Amino acid sequence: MATGISASLNSMSCRLGRNSFTATRPSSVISLSSFLTPVTHLKGNIFPLQRRRSLKVCLVLEKKIEDGIEIEKDDSPESSNRASERLARKKAERYTYLVAAMMSSLGITSMAIVAVYYRFSWQMEGGEIPVLEMLGTFALSVGAAVGMEFWARWAHKALWHASLWHMHESHHRPREGPFELNDVFAIINAVPAISLLSYGLFNKGLVPGLCFGAGLGITVFGMAYMFVHDGLVHRRFPVGPIANVPYLRKVASAHQLHHSDKFNGVPYGLFLGPMELEEVGGMEELEKEINRRIKSSDSS
């Protein structure tokens, strides 16, 4: 690709000091280096210029494209085919993750429902209702679900963004394929939940009841986290009407600010993310992100 300078001078007279010269319209393109070469054939003192001088030069940068170079256009068939392939691949990845999410969700949910049913039916055997055990199970269910939010906040900051960054980094990069290495954390958190549910299901007493409640609370939190984080925030699968719930929209916007790293990673939690942003003075940015998501959802 060659670059030239075209000088357009219409029979123009330039008065420099006492010397004058007339330049006519050139018929060819001159190079920048030749144009800037000092003029040595002019006699006399050129500088300073007189106040009456009249100099009008029009420099036009031109780009010449060498023969044989093809310029790829956005509307070329090859570009359109690549865009179609990327779109089809993204749809296939979302469908694959949706199937996996539905299978795991249905499996874990059905297992939890069956476990709760048999757990309480066995407690009713003998005609005596173990009120204390049932209250303990319910209290630990709620407590574990709430406690998991604080555990996730601490682990996110102290572990995932520290010693386990080599795994969590996949979540902060453009995803290649339906899954990412960060999904392993969901499996890791499912292990204690299933273990606690199993122990509480096959044993009687207050302690097994508490363990059962803790496992149930972890399971409920995990299900909610998957739908809000993976579905609503990162849109790995459609979530339906929950996307229009005002507080969940605020939660999703707060987590999006975590990925923008505007407040040094805050918020690290999910469901209480807006409160974390309020503590660091990020409510204005949160409102901007909420409005951006509303406009994006309306236009799509």
TrEMBL record:
GO terms for biological process: carotene metabolic process; xanthophyll biosynthetic process. It is a multi-pass membrane protein. The chain crosses the membrane at residues 95-118, 130-152, 181-201, 207-228. It holds the Pfam family FA_hydroxylase. Its EC number is 1.14.15.24. The keyword Membrane applies. Residues 144-272 form the Fatty acid hydroxylase domain. It comes from Vitis rotundifolia (Muscadine grape). Belongs to the sterol desaturase family. This is beta-carotene 3-hydroxylase. GO terms for molecular function: beta-carotene 3-hydroxylase activity; iron ion binding. It is an enzyme of class 1 (oxidoreductase). GO terms for cellular component: chloroplast membrane. Keywords: Carotenoid biosynthesis, Membrane, Oxidoreductase, Transmembrane, Transmembrane helix.
